Amino acid sequence: MKIATYNVNGINGRLPVLLQWLKESSPDIVCLQELKAPQERFPIREINAAGYEAIWKGQKSWNGVAILAKNMEITEVQNSLPGDPEDLQSRYIEAIIGKIVICCLYLPNGNPYPGPKFDYKLSWIKRFKKRTQQFIKMELPAILIGDFNIIPGPLDVHKPERWENDALYRTEVRKAYGELQKKGWLDSIRSLYPDEKIYTFWDYLYKAYDRDAGIRLDHILLSPYISSRLQSGGVDKHVRGWEKSSDHAPVWIELETEDQPV
């Protein structure tokens, strides 16, 4: 089973790129972020024509998350992160697909630091960690997947010394990411490539992609009750180089199916 995440940075404007990648990569489950489209403007016809069912939570101009699945039923659990009924930003959607809990997230950026946006990011992380602990206590096969807007460590950023006061790399958010791992969540890509520089985002400015001056923001974390099924994974970096592509690249993993030995 192939599971992927892709911050599309505007699903309608970059729909040809998304459809081209879906055809090329053929993932079974896909989590999308930054739809930048209201609920009624999600391109469900084109997604269906590509062979996928979908659930989504849109938002005009900003944010927005979606889960796509090929030849599998999607059972939506919730489309907002519990803990703050006044938070109307579309950043979280949760579903069950093939006995796996899929948590698609677009964690707040938090810049500029310091300030209210960074405070919102920390409060969002606190709510998110509470939800992830429920999966651990229930011993569920669950996947936390999406754009975390967190750079976990020095290997995940070009010239880390320049990012120390950026909300993506602040000590507080890296600590929170590390605490998830301590609770048993496996950073799938880093576990497969423990010593390599791996990036998933390259800014449009300063020829960042050409220079490979990137950062790793897009993650796939596996609960202890599914992590042993991890087989392979990677970043489709070349997609970032396509015309009119997102500034993120798709990230994917492959899991053994349940009928295979674990």
Query: What's the story with the biggest beta sheet?
Result: 6 strands, mixed
Q: Indicate the CATH topology.
A: Deoxyribonuclease I, Chain A
Query: What's the CATH class, please?
Result: Alpha Beta
Radius of gyration: 17 Å
CATH superfamily: Endonuclease/exonuclease/phosphatase
Count up the helices. 7
Residue windows where pLDDT falls under 50 for at least 5 positions = none
**Numbering strands along the chain, what is their spatial order in the largest sheet?**
3-4-2-1-12-11
User: Judging from the principal axes of the Cα atoms, what is the shape?
Assistant: globular
How much beta, percentage-wise?
15-25%
Structure in a nutshell:
Belongs to the DNA repair enzymes AP/ExoA family. This protein is an alpha+beta fold.
What does the model show?
Helix 3 links the parallel strand 7 and strand 8. With 262 residues, the chain is of the alpha+beta class. The mean pLDDT is 97. The strands form 2 sheets. A 6-stranded mixed sheet has the order 3-4-2-1-12-11. Strands 5-6-7-8-10-9 form a 6-stranded mixed sheet. Helix 3 runs parallel beside helix 4. The chain is globular.
How do the strands and helices of this protein lay out in sequence?
Blueprint: E1 2-7, H1 15-25, E2 29-33, H2 44-49, E3 53-57, E4 65-69, E5 75-78, E6 92-97, E7 100-106, H3 116-137, E8 142-147, H4 171-182, E9 186-187, H5 188-192, H6 208-211, E10 218-222, E11 230-235, H7 237-240, E12 251-255
Parallel strand pairs: 1-2, 7-8
Antiparallel strand pairs: 1-12, 2-4, 3-4, 5-6, 6-7, 8-10, 9-10, 11-12
Helix pairs in contact: 3-4
GO molecular function: DNA binding; double-stranded DNA 3'-5' DNA exonuclease activity; endonuclease activity; metal ion binding
Family: Belongs to the DNA repair enzymes AP/ExoA family.
Site (Transition state stabilizer): 149
